[in-house]
Design goal:
Helix content is about 20%, strand content about 25%. Strands 5, 6, 7, 8, 9, 10, 11, 12 and 13 form a 9-stranded mixed beta sheet that branches. The protein has a 4-stranded antiparallel beta sheet with strand order 2-1-3-4, with no helix packed on it. The radius of gyration is 25 Å and the shape is elongated. About 30% of the residues are buried. The mean pLDDT is about 90. It binds uracil (URA). The site of uracil (URA) has 8 residues, from helix 5.
């Protein structure tokens, strides 16, 4: 890291001020007055300003969890109507965590919780198109030709959805179970997509976000995300 950035990152002075400090000979690296304003600090270098060591802040440890949100819980940190929130389920966690994105009160399934604001921004930003997979139980017989409408994109009222992946999982006597992956997150999008195709959603569960799967995590329970799950969310967010 360039010396002026290193000094600024440690909170000693702005980069410009750091340049002035270097020019006036107040900065030493490994006990030698630094003459080179473009110096790149290397691991193990001792940097001093006015004889005091300049230390970088400890790398902050963030926390990442997968929660199985039950129906009836709101996805907020606090609810003005006093309804149960997802925070009520996150007992004994570290960090000031908050939900990444949201699920409707009557939707269950995978919700990511973290105290890492930059991660939350990257993963939930609409332009990053993280795939989100849902299983919906809909009223009536939902067939392949209707599945094709959802795959192609459907007008949900002033907005045409982008291509989705749709698989019919189970045909019940008067209901159909459908798996759907979307790459955007408009308000009530899945319910509105089925409504536009003429179907009412009776039950909706999110089973995956990118490569992170709900799996067998019990309803109301949570687990820590694995390092590779965090990395994979960040990697697919960069595309
Ligand atoms: N689409 C919905 O309609 N509801 C959700 O909670 C998530 C996606």
């Amino acid at each position: 890291m360039r010396i002026n950035k290193y000094i600024a990152a440690a909170g000693v002075a702005s980069r410009r001020k750091a340049d002035e400090m270097i020019a006036s000979g107040r900065v030493k690296v490994n006990n030698m007055v630094l003459r080179e304003p473009g110096y790149d600090v290397m691991e193990g270098d001792l940097v001093e300003v006015d004889g005091k060591p300049v230390l970088q802040p400890e790398g902050k440890q963030y926390h990442y969890y997968a929660l199985h949100k039950p129906v009836g819980y709101v996805t907020t940190v606090s609810d003005e109507k006093g309804r149960p929130t997802v925070m009520d389920l996150m007992t004994e966690v570290e960090g000031r965590i908050f939900p990444v994105g949201r699920l409707d009160i009557d939707t269950s399934g995978l919700l990511i919780m973290t105290d890492d604001g930059s991660f939350a921004y990257k993963v939930s930003h609409p332009k990053h198109e993280q795939g989100k997979t849902y299983v919906a139980r809909v009223q009536g017989t939902f067939n392949e030709s209707q599945a094709r409408w959802l795959r192609k994109g459907i007008d949900i009222g002033g907005f045409v959805t982008s291509p989705a992946e749709v698989t019919i999982l189970k045909e019940l006597p008067r209901q159909t179970v459908v798996e759907l992956t979307i790459h955007e997150g408009k308000y009530h999008q899945v319910r509105r997509m089925f409504k536009a195709a003429g179907f009412k959603v009776l039950e909706l569960q999110r089973i995956a976000i990118g490569d992170v799967r709900l799996g067998r995590l019990a309803e109301g329970h949570y687990r820590r995300l694995k390092r590779e799950e965090i990395d994979s969310l960040l990697k697919s967010s960069k595309k």
